[in-house]
Amino acid sequence: MAVKRHQDPDDNPAERQSSSTAFQEILKRRFSKRTFLKNAGLVAVALPLTGITNASSSINKSSSLSFNEIAHGLDKHLHLAKDYSAQVVLSWGDTLFSNAEKFDPNKQNSLSQLKQFGFNNDFVAYIPIPHSKKKSTHGVLIVNHEYVNSTMMHPGSPHAFELSLEQIDTEMAAHGLSIVEIQKQENKWNINRDSKYNRRITPLTEMKFSGPARGHKRVKTEFSPRGEKCMGTFGNCAGGVTPWGTILTAEENIQAYFSGNVRKTSEYESYKRFGLLGSKTAFSVWGKYYDHWNINKNPQAAMQAGWVVEIDPYDSSFTPIKRTALGRCKHEGCGVHVNKDGKVVVYMGDDQVFEYVYRFVSKNKYQPIDRENNMSLLDEGELSVAEFTDQGSIIWHPLQWGKKPHTKDNGFESQADVVLDMRKAADLVGATPMDRPEEIKVNPISGNVFAVFTNNSRRNPLNTDAANPRVLNRHGHILELLPPEQDHSAREYKWEIFILAGDPDSKIDNAYYHSDISESGWFSSPDNCSFDKNGKIWIATDGFNLSGKADGVWVSATSGKDKALSRLFLRAPIGAEICSPCFTPDYKTMFCSVQHPGDGSSFDQPSTRWPDFDENMPPRPSVIAITQDNDKIIGT
Ligand code: FEO
Ligand code: CA
Ligand code: CA
Predict the structure, then answer these.
(1) Which residues have C-beta within 8 Å of that of residue 343, sequence separation ≥ 6?
(2) For residue 65, what pLDDT is reported?
(3) Residue having the nearest C-alpha atom to atom 3 of ligand 1
(4) Which residues of 286-295 are buried (b: 16+ CB within 10 A; e: fewer)?
(5) Which domain CATH number covers 588?
(6) Considering just the CA atoms, what is the radius of gyration of the chain in Å?
(7) Is the CB of 527 under 6 A from ligand 1?
């Protein structure tokens, strides 16, 4: 989500005092031998061309990266490294079904939107068509639509609180997910609008619960008096892909949807800790027309949100399942990994200032040829939360009902209470409050885990620690978590700082990269990450716009002599963040989201009209497919 909408929410953060440590002291303790930087002078020229431009030349010093870096900047266009091309695959309003109504931004309505690509696409996953020989050119694309921006979406640029019921219905229909079959033919990715896989999932799609909170009294609502079903999904930020071919979608800023006076509910303490304060934190007025989103009429409805949802994209009739064993928080995403013992591990960040990093380890093992078995793996297992010690260790503390402190004495009647109030359970075991945990993923080459922390302007000298070492952390950082002997179920890991983002030339930023970092190699507010065939990390940012530079994608080696030598590969159009770089199995196509282009302006007077550059079309959030012109593997 754009930083503007939820930058540093200050609702009851779990602040914890820790010993104040001088920054240089922290650096000494937690860095490897890399040194501070010098700039390499860069020359890059952008060529305006259908909204996507390439750097024509640049000087790259001492980098194992094969592409010519582009330069920092901020304009209407999307810029890409030389010899790469980007195709706009899907934009807001594009039809997903052959019987869908053609998009007209001036006459958009809810029924049309239900058959079209939604707004503000975030998470993107590509999975091959089953049994297809064309695994990397024929697949299903799954995309989250995290939220909408009313002023960018409707003619007249209305504020969210000025919308008509029909406009609210349209916005609701623009949330959720799009699932669509795509195929690469003659170098172009095409949509199959008649595919059996195509589906829109929205906040009104019926879902069900599994795991400890299923059927619990605290998830019973008017819609589901037995607490077994729930209404839809929304606030879907990043996600994950399981090895059995399902996708996980993470419900993040669900506090933005429930209005009413939260003090009048029996869940007040729980909602307060979650940062859900009814009308004080709602960005929407769904509750004005629909009781489900009015916390006073349906006090448990917000307990039905904030989960990880599993969806089978190969079956368009599949009822999505909220996997409550993975806990309830502002889930950024889910990094899925099969441990060497066959157990499935899910890493999860809770994206709010001073919140925590979580891990789930399944009780049962992944069976490559038994999909039915795998479909229940995320219902049983051990949930734990990370303590990052100043000495460089991570201790995973179990969140398990019945064992102290998660007992009746502390208000936990069962594991359902532990998962429903996961933050509260984590508070009791000394978890480390982090600088807004975003995506956490396993590097498939090294087996180490990379955890991204986007920023935290509320970090102060009294609560800095070795893992969150900077006061007013404006630019965020990335940590590398090292499980012993690649055992992702181990109780204790080590951790290292990978990058402290920010301007390496700024004394205030105290940034940290490889010493050969270039003029454009530095970034701010990392959010998502992915790994290519060689284990290089592709980092997407959300918040660099605030420093007057475009967000984008930076790439860095994660080991060897060029570790932490990031280079700018892609620059977003003004206002946009880039989300969820993801690769086809042959690594020849990289998909990613361009979310909220033109953010900060309006439908009527947009700061860019990317990607159409048509006077009759507002800027449209879109998924793009990036290929190398000679069909080589991305990043080689
Ligand atoms: Fe939706 Fe944490 O970004
Ligand atoms: Ca973000
Ligand atoms: Ca995000």
Answers:
(1) 361, 362, 363, 364, 365, 366, 381, 489
(2) 84
(3) 1
(4) bbeebbbbbb
(5) 2.120.10.30
(6) 23
(7) yes
pLDDT attached to residue 27: 56
pLDDT at 15: 40
Residue 377 near residue 366, CB atoms below 8 Å: yes
How far does residue 508's CA lie from ligand 1's centre (Å)? 26
In a domain, 235, yes or no: yes
What does the alpha-carbon distance between residue 422 and residue 406 come to, in Å, rounded to a whole number?
Answer: 11
Residue 473: inside a domain: yes
Cα 541 to averaged position of ligand 3 atoms, centre (Å):
9
In a domain, 10, yes or no: no
Instruction: Give residue 33's pLDDT.
Output: 41
Give CA separation, 537 vs 475, 556, 568, in Å.
Answer: 18, 5, 12
d(CA 611, CA 149): 17
User: What are the CA-CA distances from residue 179 to residues 47, 139, 191, 288, 579 (Å)?
Assistant: 34, 10, 11, 30, 17
Domains held by the chain: number: 1
Q: CA 88 → CA 203, 610, 612, distances in Å?
A: 26, 10, 10
pLDDT at 396: 98
Q: Using the 8-state DSSP alphabet, how is residue 562 labeled?
A: G
Q: Does 332 sit in the ligand 1 pocket, CB within 6 Å?
A: yes
Q: Which residues of the chain have pLDDT under 70?
A: 1-63
- Using the mean position of ligand 3's atoms as its centre, give its distance from the Cα of residue 333 in Å: 8
What is the rounded CA–CA span in Å between residue 261 and residue 284?
14
Going by C-alpha positions, the residue among 321, 132, 350, 127 that lies closest to residue 241 is: 127
Instruction: Please tell me if the CB atom of residue 577 comes closer than 6 angstroms to any atom of ligand 1.
Output: no
Indicate whether 264 belongs to any domain: no
The residue range of the domain holding 360 is: 23-257+305-628
Question: Do 368 and 243 touch, CB atoms closer than 8 A?
Answer: yes
Burial class from Cβ neighbours inside 10 Å (0-12, 13-18, 19+) for residue 577 reads: buried
Strands 78-80 and 52-54: parallel
Ramachandran quadrant class, 278 (left: phi over 0; alpha: psi -120 to 50; beta: rest): left
What pLDDT sits at residue 113? 98
Q: What is the per-residue pLDDT for 493? A: 98
**Ligand 3 centre from 125 Cα, in Å?**
14
DSSP state of 557: B
Ligand 1 contact via 8 beta carbon (within 6 Å): no
Please state, in angstroms and rounded to a whole number, the distance separating the CA atoms of residues 594 and 479.
Answer: 25
Q: Which of ligand 1's atoms lies nearest the C-alpha of 330?
A: 2
Instruction: Give this prediction's pTM.
Output: 0.93
Q: Are 440 and 335 in contact (CB under 8 A)?
A: yes
Ligand with the closest atom to the CA of 123: 3
Q: Residue 64: its pLDDT value, please?
A: 76
Q: Is the minimum distance from the CB of 348 to ligand 1 under 6 angstroms?
A: no
**In angstroms, what is the span from residue 74 Cα to ligand 3's centroid?**
21
SS3 call for 530: strand
Q: Which atom of ligand 1 is nearest to the CA of 122?
A: 1
